[in-house]
Amino acid sequence: MTWHVAEEDLRGYARGELAPPLLWSADSHLVACAECRARLADVSDPVALDAGWERLDAELDAPRPGLFERLLVRFGVADHTARLLAATPILRRSWLLAVVSVLFMSVLMVHTAHTPGLFLGLAPLLPLIGVALSYGPGIDPTYEMAVVAPLHGFRLLMIRTAAVLAAALVLCGLASLALPDYGLRALAWLLPALALTGIGIALMPRLGPVFAPVLTGGAWIGFLIAAQQATEGTPAPFTAPGQAVTAVVALAAAALVRRLRDRFDSSSAHTPFAGFGPGGAV
Ligand SMILES: [Zn+2]
Asked: How far is the CA of 80 from the centre of ligand 1 (A)?
């Protein structure tokens, strides 16, 4: 490795003032280069940063990459992105197992109760829960990366969300295949899943990384129960007009997340997102 981040850029990075594309190359380089991380620590507030990198180093310098990470690299994903994805909690075996068992049980109940309602109601919650679980100290090793490199905020969130969505959507899709009797209706969870994930993320800058998804998920469950009581047949979100409305909501939420992107990045030194740090809301 011959190129290193210039001293001046490191100072800008530490202050949270480095702009793209310099920021992106500094981001990628810092993940791979211990020397520049050490230099970054020198030019930044020493105490908090050192502790952050130490914990991150322990995770990043794991003796050898796991199978998933090696697969990603083989498929052309950049080293540092592969490592970030592999360290995403939802992609760890325990979370995947949890998602698989929830889906397995709900598919089983569809077959015994002869209504896809429970499956369609639960499946959209899985990516939302995954995004919520991807944040916060104690759960997330790459949380340190967001702490150390504050400007990672939005990009990190998008990489993680894409990983969580991909995993959850593939698994829910497979579960839908186990419900051939319901045809396309077994896929009616997809748009609600995207809408709930979008709303959950859009509320994060205001409500925090835990309360926003909890509130979104709770509202979804409450709405479904109300819809179930209002009509005998298919709950509103899973009818054709309901799906159209859900699609619009999903797009609106995505646009809102895009508009709020600055709120996820922070120029203050040690909080991953503006407005909410390790402590949670506000
Ligand atoms: Zn370097």
From this structure: 14
| Calpha distance 37→49 (Å, rounded) | 10
Cα 3 to averaged position of ligand 1 atoms, centre (Å)? 6
Query: Contact at 8 Å (CB) between 128 and 213?
Result: yes
Q: Whole-structure pTM over 0.90, yes or no? A: no
| Concatenated DSSP letters of 94-120 | HHHHHHHHHHHHHHHHHHHHS-THHHH
Phi, psi (deg, nearest 5) at residue 30: -65, -35
Ligand 1 centroid, distance to 41 Cα (angstroms): 13
Output the six-digit token pair for 122: 């639960």
Whether the Cβ atoms of residue 248 and residue 241 lie closer than 8 Å to each other: no
- Which structure tokens are listed for 63? 């003796």
Distance between CA 47 and CA 75 in Å, rounded?
A: 38
Distance between Cα 32 and ligand 1 center (Å): 8
Beta bridge partners of 273: 276
10-residue stretch averages of pLDDT, the chain, 282 residues long: 82 78 80 83 64 56 63 72 64 68 79 78 86 58 47 66 81 85 84 93 82 92 88 82 94 91 55 40 32
CA distance 260 to 255: 9
